[in-house]
Amino acid sequence: MRRVRQRVAFRDHAAESALFKRRAIVCFAFVVLMVGVLLTNLYYIQIVDHQAYQTRSNDNRIRLIPVAPNRGLIYDRNGILLADNQPVFTLEAVPERVADMEASLSGLAQLLELTDEQLETFRERLQGHRRFKPLALVNQLTEAQVAQFSVNQHRFPGFTVEAGLKRHYPHGGSLTHLLGYVARINSQDQARLEADGEGARYAATRSIGKQGIERFYEAALHGQPGMLEVEVNNRGRIVRTLTAQPTEAGQDLHLTLDLPLQKMAERLLDGRRGAVVAMDPRDGGVLAMVSSPSYDPNAFVTGISGKQYSELLNDGNRPLINRATQGQYAPASTVKPHLALLGLELGHVTEKTKIWDPGWWQIPGVDRRYRDWKRWGHGWVDLDKAIAASCDTYFYDLAYKTGINEISQFMFQFGFGERTGIDLMEESAGNMPTRDWKRIRYKEPWYIGDTISVGIGQGYWTATPLQLALSTTILANDGARHIPHLLAATESDGVRTEEPIIDRPPIELERPSAWRSIQRSMYLTAHNPMGSGYRQFNDASYKSAVKTGTGQVFGLAEDAEYDEDNVAEHLRDNALFVGYAPYDDPQIVIAIVLENAGWGGANAGPVARALFDFYLDPDALDPELLEAD
Predict the structure, then answer these.
(1) Which end of the chain is less enclosed by CB atoms within 10 A, N or C?
(2) Same domain, 273 and 392
(3) 333 is an active site residue
(4) In this model, does residue 259 exceed pLDDT 90?
(5) Which percentage of the chain shows pLDDT scores above 70?
(6) Looking at the domain assignment, is residue 310 inside a domain?
(7) 305, part of any domain
(8) 195 assigned to some structural domain
């Protein structure tokens, strides 16, 4: 066979060497380029962006923890503590650190005997809560609960017991409507704080003033938060504290309130529905302000239960209402001195003007008779007797002569129909009716009969007990008008700063002697046998000027008779009183409203007498009333 020779291919070593060199150069260039990029990045990281990366590193390593300031304390005029701060232990959870929330809650409920309501409230608040921020499960642990949890804390990672301070009101319900209370900051509070730029200031604060003085002076009471700069590890645990910025405690408040007088007023009301306001006519400071019935504000501090709040809300006696500043009552005969003062100023009557009172009065040309409270009448009545004996007929005639326009304009000056300006948010303006008001409110014209009712403090006219006290203060001061206030001074770091007294322009009469005439008539009410307050005040060691009143809650038909025994309790007349003492040197003004109590002199009078005695002549008071609670 013929053998076929195969070709043998030879490798081109020169070409391969050239290719290798090209590839090596490219790889080397790439490596050099990458090293250059790396070095460039290192340069920017270490040199150019050093500060930024250091800050980011510190942010992961260092945390700023806000510290809540101590809330300012509140004292009465005698230095008696009214609101303080007490230690409290709170069970908190950081949601992101809790592996199984429901299992943990179930275990804690058995361990600490938590209620279903507490657990449900926590679950509701957990919705929408930031998972890295602590959330309170129990706001006030007992010592036994703290001990039980401490032993079993390892079973509940993410849960801790935190110590803090809570607001405490040592006098319970005695001052609720005046001091108010603090409660947990809710979503509405948080939104308002953020809108006001106060969010950072309240970052560590869990409660805020909700009512009364606590709310009105929240900015002063809260103080300034501090700040801790701490180092944490990769698990978020604090390793050490780097720096600490101290807190600034809130300012302490010293009130015009006289706590013993407040307690006495509360004791005299004895749970009856009503209000007492006592003021110092020399500067407008409130000495006592009682609204009855009341409730314990301490229940709101750590979170009131839904059942408790529902009971308060649905209580027919309305304990949540501050009757002293929000209760609106017909002022009745307590405003007859003011109306008589207007009559003197306009010249419609003089001190010697007399009318005949047969027990009723008629509008000229109208058959309807407006009855006097004394069915057989008072006979001949002058100004002194009209006020002292509270003759309705006299004031029917005076109102008819004066007209609603003059009455309303004059009464506005005494604070009727507008807020007094007291340092409380919870205040009603009452109602001083006018023609325009009725047209807008009822779409009806003003009738002369409406004016007649206003002439005895009835009809559309309503006032708060605080307004009655203020208007009486103005009478006692010959027209000087002090704005009612509760704050006397603030104190910070041991330095006390007195609050300035703010006045409105005084009421100036063309006949200044009219002030003395009205004051004399109120004096006779207390110290003349014809006066409605004579039985209660004539034997006092001091002289006083008073006016009683009986306010109708519903209107009677022309020929109907009021029979208290056959009228529902809530429809019975209100008992009212206003007065001041001593007569020649007024030191205290008192206004009282007792709801559905009946005759003012017989029911509100004894309360006023006991308060005057307590303040001016304690030796004359029944020893049993002086006993401590």
Answers:
(1) N
(2) yes
(3) yes
(4) yes
(5) 91
(6) no
(7) no
(8) yes
Tracing tokens 């299992």 back to the chain, one arrives at: 103
Res 240 pLDDT > 60: yes
- Domains in the chain, number: 2
**Residues 494-540 pLDDT 10s:** 899 999 988 999 999 999 999 999 999 999 999 999 999 999 999 99
**Secondary structure, 3-state, 488-514:** EEEEECCEEEECCCCEECCCCCCCCHH
pLDDT at 568: 64
- CA–CA gap between residue 595 and residue 327 (Å, rounded): 10
Full domain range(s) for residue 368: 259-295+325-490+505-555+575-626
**What CATH number corresponds to the domain at position 417?**
3.40.710.10
Question: What's the CA gap between 306 and 285, in Å, rounded?
Answer: 37
- Are the beta carbons of 67 and 230 closer than 8 angstroms? no
The per-residue DSSP string of 234-285 comes to TTS-EEEEEEEEPPBPPPEEEES--HHHHHHHHHHHTT-SEEEEEEETTTTE
Backbone angles phi, psi at 496, to 5 degrees: -95, 135
Domain assignment present for 302: no
pLDDT for the residue numbered 167: 92
pLDDT-derived band at 236, boundaries 50, 70, 90 = low
* Domain boundary pick from 226, 255, 284: 255
- Same domain, yes or no: 225 and 279: no
Is the separation of the CB atoms in 626 and 618 below 8 Å?
A: yes
d(C-alpha 388, C-alpha 385), whole Å: 5
pLDDT for 583 beyond 50:
yes
Contact 343, 481 (CB under 8 A): no
The pLDDT tens digits for 149-166 are: 888 888 888 888 888 788
Res. 5: pLDDT tops 60: no
Question: Within this chain, do residues 181 and 243 fall inside the same structural domain, yes or no?
Answer: yes
Domain match, 367 and 268 both: yes
Take residue 442 and report the two structure tokens written for it: 């009822």
Mean of the per-residue pLDDT values for the chain? 88
**b/e 187-226 (16+ beta carbons within 10 angstroms → b):** eebeeebeeeebeebbbbbbbbbbbbbbbbbbeebbbebb
In this prediction, residue 54 carries a pLDDT of 59
Asked whether 231 and 196 are in contact (CB, 8 A), the reply is no
Q: Which of 148-162, 173-187, 350-364, 554-568 has the lowest mean pLDDT?
A: 554-568
pLDDT at 629: 46
Give me the catalytic one of 207, 292, 333, 532.
333
